[in-house]
Amino acid sequence: MSKVSDELYEEITTITGKDRVRNDSFERRMYSHDLASLPKLMELGFKMMPDLVVKPKYDEEISEVMKIAASEGIPVVPRGGASWGLGGAMPVEGGIVLDLTRMNKILEIDEENLTASVEPGITWKMLQENLLRRGYIIGSYPSSAYAATVGGWINTGGVGVGSYKYGSAINQIISMEVVLPTGRIISTNGKKSSNFGGIDLNRLFFGAEGTLGIITKVGVRIYPAPQELRPVSYAFSDLNDLSKTVRVLTKTDIVPLHISFLDRNHFKFLREIGMAEDMQQLGGMLNIALEGDSEVIDLEDEIIENIAIKCKGEKQSQEFSEHEWKERFYELRTKRAGPSAVLGEVFVPVSSMGNMISATNKLIAKMKLRAAITGMVSDRNTVVFMPYYLSDERKLIRNIASLSFVKKLGDLAFEHGGRPAGLGLFFSGNIKRMYGHGYGVMRDLKDVLDPYDVMNPGKTTEGLTRFGIPIPSFALNLGMNVMSWVKHLMTKDKGVSA
Ligand SMILES: Cc1cc2nc3c(=O)[nH]c(=O)nc-3n(C[C@H](O)[C@H](O)[C@H](O)COP(=O)(O)OP(=O)(O)OC[C@H]3O[C@@H](n4cnc5c(N)ncnc54)[C@H](O)[C@@H]3O)c2cc1C
Fold first, then answer.
1. 154 CA closest ligand 1 atom index
2. Cβ atoms within 10 A of the Cβ of 239, count?
């Protein structure tokens, strides 16, 4: 049964106009999942189809919708580019999906104070391109920048391209405007300068995965465009040598813009789709982007070269390095060899990088997947692993059994002193393991800010099915183990071109 009656539908259309409210089944189906397309079987546990899709343009509209939702107990799910795969933007109890991509304007660029005020639905790519035309850049952004929105990346607590130098999404924020679950509109800072002292409200909403409020405006830091950006790439025949280079580099004073890596399988898949040369001896590629004044870069380039060569790295041509830098947005290009791909994401300490690579490779071999390891170094302490496997959605059982890779990868991260990136719906069962007693405080905060439990319910601090019952973690673990064993017993995956 729909949670939105005909009367409420009419009321909501008077807020936004009829053209920005949709209740037809085609549109609702489109909004029933995020990046991860899920088997229909999932509908037994979750009411993934929203009852209504609303496409607001102004914060006041969102505030009015939230007031109705709070008084009627209707779940509201904020959604940006839907490029996160953990079910954050997927309804679990139906209700309203708020598509924020129509709020995509740059409201102000303040060149004096080096800030820009933007709406939450603008993509990082669009923002960066606009700023570059004026001689400015944004510090860091996700490699999914073509689809990822400003509000979405902040809510997933993201790190990405440029995080080694400029930090995570939180470091890009000066202030935010947020519509609370009760409809109240607040500002987290209200100034164009940094906020010191007091409770940091920016941090409160950062990484909240759309469960504490809806971000409707963001004040971001901007920087003058650098004199030079120089990518350098090193090929290694052994990934252990690549890891050693990273460990040495993190202990120097050099702060590259970005450090990322790709294993041999990634290039093998690229070759399968006709987009790479034969690189038989390759174990992995280390890509480093240096940014700043050319004289400083010359020096940094030389020091890095000494480190990499001592660790048996082979410097690649400038042309190749430039190509790798351009490819930073297209790591899933290889999915054509699948013809689909599923991405996992976990954080581990830098010291565990080598062991995590070996453990991930063992898991890939055990599950007989066609998979590649890619990742980045997000700061001196942390490596982000983003391995992916190629899949074929038409092979239902094989496809379902393979999904357990992402859960198993998360377990490996815990074993190596790290954790999965994000909770969403699918990893919400990890919250106690990740935060211990801090979990109780998070839950209390959620209850205070969202007294009617309408703001993206069933996620993050709780993993709930459509019946309001928690996803049983024992059954989930057992199910995942069974699925990975089923996959282990199957023949090796074959690609479309293999
Ligand atoms: C190829 C590829 C590369 C990727 N690279 C990276 C990377 O480098 N770094 C990284 O961190 N992630 C990466 N991701 C994951 C994903 O793209 C990012 O998390 C992205 O920032 C999500 O943004 P989105 O707009 O798509 O959010 P969505 O998927 O729409 O939403 C994500 C969560 O945020 C909430 N939300 C969205 N907008 C708002 C808002 N305005 N207010 C409140 N809540 C909101 C949603 O409810 C949901 O819980 C990658 C994914 C892919 C497929």
1. 21
2. 21
pLDDT of amino acid 498? 42
306 burial level (CB within 10 Å; 0-12, 13-18, 19+): exposed
Ligand 1 centroid–CA 207 distance in Å is: 10
Give per-residue pLDDT as tens, 399-440.
888 889 999 999 999 999 999 999 998 888 888 888 888 899
Q: What percent of the chain has pLDDT over 70?
A: 99
Measured distance CA(383)–CA(186) in Å, rounded: 35
CB of 119 closer than 8 Å to CB of 103: yes
Four-CA torsion 462, 466, 470, 474, nearest 10 degrees: -120
Average confidence (pLDDT) over 476-498 = 80
pTM: 0.94
Ligand 1 centroid, distance to 341 Cα (angstroms) = 17
Out of 79, 332, 386, mutate this one to test ligand 1's pocket (max ligand atoms within 8 Å of CB): namely 79
User: What is the set of domains in the chain, with CATH numbers?
Assistant: 6-101 (3.30.43.10), 102-224 (3.30.465.10), 228-420 (3.40.462.40), 428-489 (no CATH)
Residue 467 has pLDDT above 80, yes or no: yes
91 lines ligand 1 (CB under 6 A): no
292 strand-pairing partners: 228
Closest atom of ligand 1 to CA, residue 78: 47
Question: Are 369 and 389 in contact, with CB atoms under 8 Å apart?
Answer: yes
Peptide bond connecting 339 to the previous residue in cis, omega within 30 degrees of 0:
yes
